[in-house]
From TrEMBL:
PROSITE patterns: REL_2. Gene3D superfamilies: Rel homology domain (RHD), DNA-binding domain. One of its GO terms (biological process) is calcineurin-NFAT signaling cascade. This is RHD domain-containing protein. It comes from Micrurus corallinus. It comes from the Eukaryota.
Length: 147
């Protein structure tokens, strides 16, 4: 059986940034460094893609967060390759999981972007109030093709 495990948990607080500010940098791990995610039980030689998005953190069904988005961090200190894409209106960061790295990725390339309330309230059917809903989850998933 496969297991996608967060080996190094992210810090419980991260200051998100608005598009108009400079980036606040990548999400950090509580002991310093960055979160680490590893896929266990995958023995094929094909690389896979880890997807990361920002999800809701309340007790309801997990879904992409309406007010926060993942933001790709680049720069000299970033060691992990990543690629931003949009999947059904949600910004997703795609990170390679490579067999030569034991299917492990250091998540030093992901920041959190806060959308402006005025932009969100224009979206159809968005009922949550952005000012109250400030808790997020980093959501990781990987698609493993079945033979």
């Amino acid at each position: 059986p496969y297991e996608l495990r967060i080996e190094v948990q992210p810090k419980s607080h991260h200051r998100a940034h608005y598009e108009t500010e400079g980036s606040r940098g990548a999400v950090k791990a509580s002991a310093g460094g960055h979160p680490v995610v590893q896929l266990h039980g995958y023995l094929e030689s094909e690389p896979l893609t880890l997807q990361l998005f920002i999800g809701t953190a309340d007790d309801r069904l997990l879904r992409p967060h309406a007010f926060y988005q993942v933001h790709r961090i680049t720069g000299k200190t970033v060691s992990t390759t990543s690629h931003e894409t949009i999947l059904s209106n949600t910004k997703v960061l795609e990170i390679p999981l490579l067999p030569e790295n034991n299917m492990k990725a250091i998540i030093d390339c992901a920041g959190i972007l806060k959308l402006r309330n005025s932009d969100i309230e224009l979206r159809k059917g968005e009922t949550d109030i952005g000012r109250k809903n400030t808790r997020v989850r980093l959501v990781f998933r990987v698609h493993i093709p079945q033979p």
